[in-house]
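name: query_chain
kind: protein
chains: 1
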Amino acid sequence: MTHSVMLIAGARPNFIKVAPVLRALGAKGNVDVSLVHTGQHYDDAMSGGFFRLLDIPDPDVNLNVGSASHAVQTARIMERFEPVLEERRPGCIIVFGDVNSTAACALVAAKLQVPAVHVEAGLRSFDRTMPEEINRIVTDALCGLLLTSEPSGRRNLEAEGHAAASIVDIGNVMIDSLEHMRPRLEAV
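structure:
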């Protein structure tokens, strides 16, 4: 049985996190993986260079949203992601971290009733003046599977009322990217 999974990446921190997950899912052999780049970070220094450095293949879809205010950028992502999700209908989407792309795509998936998974769930600054904090809270509220990178993530999610069964401690996938890069780094 083949499973269909769509990974969402939009900004530099997402690329570092998506790389090891993409490799792991690809190695399973029974997972049809697609990659959507929202274009939140779009120039070569903040996007293309990371794709090459981390051995990430070209995205299957690029939404090309570019820069704008938080509200405009989030709206553009939602507007451009919705038809992609409607057409492709994966078994689930996986979002990463706390950028506008993360919250926007989780919201679209929730409205279209496509299951969503959040990698790096439960992290909190407890400062709601930070746009990223709002993105974290919204994303965790919308995703059915919450993958935590460290113990405070689980504690925060449980304190917010998330069911323990929806929380899985997976560790920090950024370390997986570091380990993938270690041979190149040591050779320098």
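note: The longest strand covers residues 3-9.
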